[in-house]
Design goal:
This protein has a two-stranded antiparallel ribbon. The chain has helices spanning 71-74, 85-97, 137-149; strands at 4-9, 12-17. The protein is extended and about 70 Å long. By secondary structure, it is of the alpha+beta class. It has a domain at 60-104. It contains three helices and two strands; from the N terminus they run E-E-H-H-H.
């Protein structure tokens, strides 16, 4: 019993075996926005009724400790020259609003847990541990101690 189909594509009929068929993915040619963009910026807005993005989590704004600089104070002007002045202002305001999310201090994100599903037949390779060169050991130990001091115990 043969598994082949006659498929019409752009007015032409083709005889195709089932093994050659693939899932059809519709390509969007044009995206329209029903809400007028009055700000003049090239940004997009996700509305509460949108379901295409899944659950959208908006971080709460928290105040920084008194001795921390705002992100706008830490960024060099030379890194923003490619932006228009109004875009620079908008970016710096956003970074300052969510300053706790753009900290130089590493932290732990409890919002998402990443898992990698493995096949039942998966067997990990046994590798010897990498040796740390003698001249780099103090630096590596200092970095590990810094992470432990921040409470990042993995």
């Amino acid at each position: 019993m043969a598994y082949s189909y006659i498929v019409e594509l752009n007015g032409t009929k083709h005889h195709i075996h089932a093994n050659k068929l693939r899932k059809f993915n519709y390509r969007v040619q044009k995206v329209t926005c029903e809400i007028p963009m009055t700000t003049g910026c090239n940004s997009a807005i996700i509305f509460e009724k949108d379901s295409d993005f899944g659950q959208v989590i908006v971080p709460e704004t928290k105040s920084l400790p008194g001795n921390c600089k705002l992100p706008s104070e830490r960024i060099e002007e030379s890194k923003l020259v490619h932006l228009k002045p109004e875009q620079r202002t908008e970016l710096l305001k956003l970074l300052d609003k969510y300053a706790d999310c753009f900290s130089d201090i590493p932290g732990f994100c409890p919002l998402v847990e990443h898992t990698v599903p493995l096949l039942d037949s998966f067997v990990p390779k046994r590798l010897a541990p990498y040796k740390i060169p003698i001249n780099l050991r103090p630096e590596v130990e200092q970095q590990l101690q810094d992470l432990l001091d921040l409470g990042l115990n993995f």
